[in-house]
Amino acid sequence: MNSGRLLIVEDDKVVAVSLKMFLENLNFQVDSTANGAHAWELIQSQGYEIILSDINVPGLQGKEILKLIRQHGIDVELILFTGYGSVSDAVECIKRGAYDYFTKPIDNERLSLSIRHALEHKALRDENRGLRYELDKSSLNHVYFRSKSMELLVQKARIAAETEATVLITGGSGTGKTLLAKYIHGCSKKAGQPFVEVSCGALSEGLLESELFGHRKGSFTGADRDKKGRFEAARDGTVFLDDINSASIGLQAKLLKVIEEKTFERVGDTRQMYTSARVIAATNKDLRELSKKGLFREDLFHRLNVVSLAIPRLSERKEDVPILVQQFLQKFSRKHKRNIKKFDEWVLPALCHYNWPGNVRELENVMERAVIFCRDGEVRLSDLPEEISGLGKGLDLKGPNMHLSDAVQKFEHHLISQALELNRGNRDKTARDLGISRATLFNKMKKWTFAAKSENVGATGFE
Ligand SMILES: Nc1ncnc2c1ncn2[C@@H]1O[C@H](COP(=O)(O)OP(=O)(O)OP(=O)(O)O)[C@@H](O)[C@H]1O
Ligand SMILES: [Mg+2]
Questions:
Q1: Under CATH, which number does the domain 148-312 receive?
Q2: More confident residue, 294 or 205
């Protein structure tokens, strides 16, 4: 059973009618027109799979139709018919992307074979496009992990994605809350719809309400026209409420209503609006604690807490560090057009040893910096910030062409940074401990900061 939709563009009535009958007998759905311009109208509106066109038709010539199809990016295969005189034109059209051509009189059997191949060709292309889309989608918001805790969390997130449930994501700064929210949206049926992000901490109470729900003209000073809110912008998609703890108690009541009843009102308007968007909220605060203190509505907390995903700090899942390092290395090598594939033996232990107070974001930044500063295709300990490399192995004084003066400088740098760390950045005390003047200490720090920027002497502690 054939299901392809075909269009015949042929002004020779006899050819057109016999071809239509032949193809309909093969169960294709066939339309026919004798005019090229009319054909172009049909092609734009009817979604054909294959166009069978004479190369010389009134209105628009076959090659002009081909040009328009390509210009407009219409996904259709074109098969051309020519008389003996215009074979060279047909060959030219093949070069420009037509699928096949036939000289008249047309051999119907060969034509039906070509149509089948063209349909297969198109199906394969559609499939590839679908796969590529899936790939883009998945690599875009990919959550990388190796730890059991993240495996369970991502599993839970996937289950939540299949439902319309409101989700609460908690976790320290930079643990990947926003990424997880995007991932849930991307895995859900809402993936083709907008993902609208609103940071509740970034706007004052009044502005936040109008940002979320919109407002009516004249409802407050400056509201000079009606404005749609983010819930309307999200349509059937996802509204991501970041830093939900920053929403005022008054606004929390409205958020509870929009989550429970799916309705809201624009500021200064009494009409009820309906939304089918899903809410995902995130916070790096303990909402239970806040609600105990009366700073967060308890009912909203319980409503949000039904599906709650708590992302552990990176220090609690060090098993994730190597895969993240690998991913960021690739990502930033591509971004900065560097061919960096490996790191020396001390880098990974140092990265795994470090405590990552800034979580995955800090690791991401450290890797970008390492890729930028790395000199010969291999990331070394000295490409990492001092607070990380210092923990990995202490002082790294080996390396090719390490001159005595370099080593002395490095050693001095190491001693001073350690002393500064011990004295919590107090320069007077550090200078006294090291038996140098405050001015000498200051000059050395300035020199290293400059050197770190131009030469990568790993002096972030001083910046
Ligand atoms: N598991 C992961 N795999 C890959 N990249 C990650 C992962 N976790 C976090 N990231 C990346 O780390 C960075 C910080 O993540 P994200 O912005 O999602 O954190 P956050 O918890 O929302 O931070 P904040 O509290 O500041 O809002 C982003 O660039 C994100 O893509
Ligand atoms: Mg975030």
A1: 3.40.50.300
A2: 294
Residue 279: its H or E element: strand 278-283
Ligand 1 proximity of 172 Cβ (cutoff 6 Å): no
CB of residue 178 inside a 6 A radius of ligand 1: yes
- The CATH code for residues 317-385 is 1.10.8.60
- Whether 191 has a pLDDT exceeding 80, the answer reads yes
Residues 6+ apart with CB under 8 A from 358: 173, 174, 365
Backbone angles phi, psi at 72, to 5 degrees: -90, 0
Question: Domain 397-463 belongs to what topology?
Answer: Arc Repressor Mutant, subunit A (1.10.10)
CA distance 13 to 57: 12
**CATH architecture under which domain 5-134 falls:** 3-Layer(aba) Sandwich (3.40)
Q: What is the DSSP string of 7-73?
A: EEE-S-HHHHHHHHHHHHHTT-EEEEES-HHHHHHHHHHH--SEEEEESS-SSS-HHHHHHHHHHTT
Query: For residues 285 and 78, what is the distance between their CA atoms, to the nearest angstrom?
Result: 60
Going from the Cα of 361 to the center of ligand 1, the distance in angstroms, rounded, reads 6
Q: What residue spans of 262-395 are helical by DSSP H?
A: 287-292, 298-304, 321-335, 347-353, 359-373, 386-393
- CA angle in degrees (0–180, nearest 5) for 340-346-347: 45
State in Å: Cα 178 to ligand 2 middle.
Answer: 4
pTM reported for the whole predicted model: 0.60
- Residue 451 reports pLDDT greater than 60: no
Which among 458, 437, 441, 452 has a CA at the least distance from the CA of 393? 458
